[in-house]
Design brief:
The chain has helices spanning about 30-35, 95-105, 115-125, 130-140, 145-155, 155-180, 185-220, 235-245, 280, 285-290, 295-300, 315-325, 345-350, 370-380, 395-415, 420-440, 445-455; strands at about 5-10, 20-25, 35-40, 50-55, 65-75, 85-90, 110, 225-230, 260-265, 270-275, 305-310, 330-335, 360. The protein is of the alpha/beta class. Bound molecules: guanosine-5'-diphosphate (GDP) and zinc ion (ZN).
Length: about 450
């Protein structure tokens, strides 16, 4: 194993909590922990994956600082593949900080850089790069569904597919190699067709992965949703109802404060990012509202626009204007207040917008929200949200590399079609293989690794 030092960090979220965990990893983890830990058992002798009760004591003056549970995981059977000790303290920012400070002050331990634990797991071959990146997504994931996609990736679903692809390409490369070494006419001819077929196969697998990219991005970042409509149609009520029922658990990530306040909700597993702009929320006049720069930006950026109309009112000129302005955009029209006597002429409405894009609801009675959920699912996931394969490509770096690999394969196909010698074609195929390798961290530069892992928060 490489020559490394021992690192420590608080691994649980900063703030008040039931317990807080300090994670220590490295060759001296157990020995260092022993310096401060008083217990009945000698942890130097303890088995891997055992938990020990005891106290953290300041060796300088014997002061008892915390009552803790200490867990030992000896490498390579740990997250980093190094010796890992986890100290579960009673929480409270002050207590956990005191313990960490003590470890850093008295011990040969240094504070971990952001993402350093995961980086070590990667460098020690425990996980590959797509899995490491998935850990970032796990930390950030905004909804159940995004979580399960990230989970799946962390388990290696994407890297499995990429590895299979690379395997095909390496076989192809070997095949080409043999034919370069033993060039007989008919064999070479066959190889040309063979290369083409093989490259086309790989291309269509990459296409399949790239097709999931849009959906993956949505799951990762949420469908940016703007709610628009005339005053008093029920926009605020809808927003409140959605937020109250479906508020997503949002993990705090330092350094991601945004200008626009947004609400994340998870509607049937679909993450929505409801843009909460001053314009959309507060300005009452609809024309004026659209004039407000911020809400205009929000509208332009929106992946989904919920246009609210009232069933108990006749269609208004402002409604017609709005629908005209939103033509060609992904709009779901919500016919609100179905609990009141209907007035709106629905034939006229369906002459302007398609019937499939209209959902009837009563925010007041909380009815119709399920249908809204289905409509969104239909619009963004072809209605097959629950179907099993959760291998989504959602990382910009992955999308770029898949694009490069695809291009290299297209180059190879075109080269064979043009009758270019196969030792030249081989370069394109090798290029595709290398691009895919970069995806899983097989051939990545040191600086890229640093860049990826610096996105982590401390203690991961
Ligand atoms: P906004 O101006 O579009 O944000 O509309 P609000 O959310 O402030 O709602 C305007 C009024 O409509 C409020 O008095 C709501 O209680 C009422 N309202 C909202 N949704 C419904 C509904 O489904 N049925 C009925 N009867 N009233 C509703
Ligand atoms: Zn309002």
């Amino acid at each position: 194993m490489r020559n490394v030092d021992t690192i420590a960090a608080i691994s649980t979220a900063v703030g008040e909590g039931g317990i807080a965990v300090i994670r220590v990893s490295g060759p001296d983890a157990v020995r260092e922990a022993k310096k401060f830990f008083r217990s009945r058992t000698d942890i130097m002798e303890a088995d891997s994956h055992t938990v020990h009760y005891g106290h953290i004591v300041d060796p300088a003056d014997g002061e008892v600082i915390e009552e803790i549970l200490l867990t030992i995981m000896r490498g390579p059977r740990s997250f980093t593949a190094e010796d890992v000790v986890e100290l579960s303290t009673h929480g409270g920012v002050v207590a956990v900080k005191r313990v960490l400070e003590l470890l850093l002050r008295e011990g040969a331990i240094r504070i971990a850089e952001p993402g350093e634990f995961t980086k070590r797991a990667f460098l020690n071959g425990r996980i590959d790069l797509t899995q490491a990146e998935a850990v970032i997504d796990l930390i950030r994931s905004k909804s159940d569904r995004a979580f399960s996609v990230a989970m799946k990736q962390a388990e290696g679903a994407l890297s499995k597919k990429v590895k299979a692809l690379r395997h095909q390409l390496i076989e192809l490369l070997a095949h080409i190699e043999v034919n370069i070494d033993y060039p007989e006419h008919d064999v070479a001819e066959m190889t040309s067709n063979y290369i083409q077929t093989r490259c086309e196969e790989s291309c269509s697998i990459i296409d399949g992965l790239l097709k999931t990219a849009g959906e993956g991005k949505i799951l990762r970042e949420g469908i940016v949703t703007a709610i628009v409509g005339r005053p008093n149609v029920g926009k605020s009520s809808l927003l409140n109802a959605l937020v109250q029922e479906n508020k997503a658990i949002v993990t705090d990530i330092p350094g991601t404060t945004r200008d626009v306040i947004e609400e994340y909700i998870s509607l049937g597993g679909i993450p929505l990012r409801l843009l909460d702009t001053a314009g959309i929320r507060e300005t009452s006049d609809v024309v004026e509202q659209i004039g407000v720069q911020r809400s205009r930006t929000a509208l332009e950026e929106a992946d989904l626009i919920l246009l609210v109309l009232n069933l108990n009112e006749a269609l208004h000129d402002d409604d017609r204007l709005l629908m005209k302005q939103l033509e060609g955009r992904p709009v779901i029209v919500l016919l609100n207040k179905t609990d009141l006597p209907p007035v709106l002429n629905e034939d006229e409405l369906y002459a302007i917008v398609s019937k499939e894009s209209v959902v009837r609801l009563s925010v007041l009675q909380e009815s119709g929200l399920d249908q809204l959920e289905h409509a969104i699912s239909r619009m963004f996931f072809g209605g097959e949200l629950e179907s099993g394969d959760l291998t989504y490509v959602s990382n910009v770096r992955h999308i770029t590399l898949l694009g490069h690999a695809r291009q290299a394969l297209v180059d190879a196909i075109e080269a064979t079609e043009a009758g270019i010698p196969i030792d030249i074609v081989q370069i394109d195929v090798r290029n595709a293989w290398e691009q895919l390798g970069e995806m899983i961290g097989d051939s990545v530069s040191e600086s890229l690794i640093d860049q990826i892992f610096s996105q982590f928060c401390l203690g991961k």
